Amino acid sequence: MAKCLRVPKSEGEPVRRALIEEGLLDLEYRIGSDGSDILIPCLCDEYNGIKAEEAELRPQNRGEGDYRNIVQVPAELKELLPNSHDVVGDIAITKLEEPLLPYRREIGEAMMKASPNIRAVFLDGGVKGEFRIRELERIAGTGTSETMHKEFGTRMLTDPSIVYFNPRLANERSRIASLVKPGEIIIDMFAGVAPFGSVICRNASPSMVYSIDLNPECERFMRENIRLNHIKNMECFIGDSTEVVKGLPQADRVLMNLPQIADRFLDVALAKAKVGGTVHMHRIMERADLPGYSQKLKDAMKAKGFGMEVTGVTELKTYSPTMSVYVFDILRTS
Ligand SMILES: C[S@@+](CC[C@H](N)C(=O)[O-])C[C@H]1O[C@@H](n2cnc3c(N)ncnc32)[C@H](O)[C@@H]1O
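Above: inputs. Below: predicted complex with S-adenosylmethionine.
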């Protein structure tokens, strides 16, 4: 079942265009029809007074819309073709197994044919270094990897080859925004191009979001995203967040999206959170290590003088056959 907006056929096109403009059209499904109405797949619960409803819509990536049906690769390699790829704005980013690499141009061309909204396809060489940026090679289409991504009505200018960006965190950004109470002070210690801050400022009413990143390339994108989204309550900083936070006020909420090593900074984050404030810490770990991990954090922070409770744990995605990325919601109690 897909979430969709029911509108009379005569009014369908302006609504569809408006949803595309705001990044709220659900590209996973095709538009359906029911009598004199059309059913437009959407990523929102309501749009302009129209309440979303559930309906059976046909998925986009089937039949001729699936690049795997048109790509020219030897038959024995077909089963290695990836089932999915990331789409950031108007570019697609795909990983390919070694035997498919000689056919990367054919695969890129087929992806573009199957998805007419894609301007270019890039081969993903993995995320590297402390800035967590991607090695990208263009395998089809034109232009650079700089692109405008839209997420739940928020615009995000980004370039995954020089700054970190992950479109798969859309639901987590929306979840965090839904927790923010009016007037909150928020610090994003590892902000990238400020997607968390932008979604929060567009969908909640914090008094200020401080977005920090070490990668100097982030500054241009953060400032542009503030401008594009008409944000008045975000300040951005380039530097080591452990230093930058020293000059900032105590926060109601601290975001820590640096999943390889965020726990090393948990004491800094707790010191910057008000008592009663929350830290959201991302962490990649063995699924087998999850039981008992919250208690370990609590003991380690107690030794540093902080009282804390883990109030929620969400599995964000699978990272490897045995590991996942989690977000821990941590309440500072003393
Ligand atoms: C996984 S990315 C998260 C980016 C962003 N939160 C997002 O969702 O797109 C981690 C970011 O932390 C930044 N970073 C790494 N060490 C840092 C530090 N000591 N202080 C500030 N930023 C840092 C990297 O440059 C990178 O942009």
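The chain has a mean pLDDT of 94.
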